Every structure is written in C-alpha cells, then in structure tokens.
Predict the 3D structure of the following.
Amino acid sequence: MSWRALILNNAGWKVVSLVLAVLIWGVLNAGLQSKLKPMGTRLFPHQPITVMTTAQDDRVFRVEPATVEVSVSGPPDVLLQLHPGDIEAYVNLTTVMEAKRLRKRIQVYLPAGVSVSRVSPGEVFVQVVPFEVTNSPPQTPR
C-alpha cells in the first residue's frame, strides 16, 4: 500500500479523530493548568474558639482546649495578606438544647480563595458552666 493511499484512505474519519483529539487535549490541559497553580500552606497557631449560640441562650460554656491550630492552603499571594483575625474557628451550639458536657467538631470560616488543610485538634469538649447566684451583699474592703 502506498503512502498516499495510507493517508487518504478514510480521510473523513481521520479528520474527525484529529479534531476530537485536539478538543479533548484542550479541555484536559485547561483543567490541569488550574490544578497545577502553585499552592502554599500557612500555619496559624493559637486561634481562639468562638462559641456560636442563639441570642436567647443565656448559658455559659467552657471549651477545652480554648484554642486550635489551623493550617490553611491557597495561592501564595493570598496567604501573605492573610491575618490571624481573618480566620474564625467556632463551635456551633445553636441546636444543642440540653447537655452538660459534649464533644463538638471545630468549624472554620475563611476568606475566599483559601481552604482549610488541617485543624488540630479537630474536636473540643464543651461544658455548660453552672450559673451561680449569690444573695450575699458585696463586701467592702477595710
């Protein structure tokens, strides 16, 4: 079989195959380029934990431990501009009605473009602190 017959035989199918191959390559290449952008990580130790409750909830809670270590990942330029105050670690207790001591998962709110890599510890103990009312008058120092 000659070279000319090899190239021109089923030329329509060959053109369609070439067009499909170029389209598939373009889609995959675009998807890989977005995933191959350089990403960095940054560690924020001693982030305080906020307790989220409803406005009507007058209970007092103690969280153990009181701080967590949050590791975030994202584009290096975004990570450089990130401040510890931009990260909010919290425990959502809006659905907890009756409990004395429980374990809750830490949730983290971050600015756009940044994602959580790790939270350590991932869970904390939450304890309801009994509210004590004293009827004795305040003592004045002598």
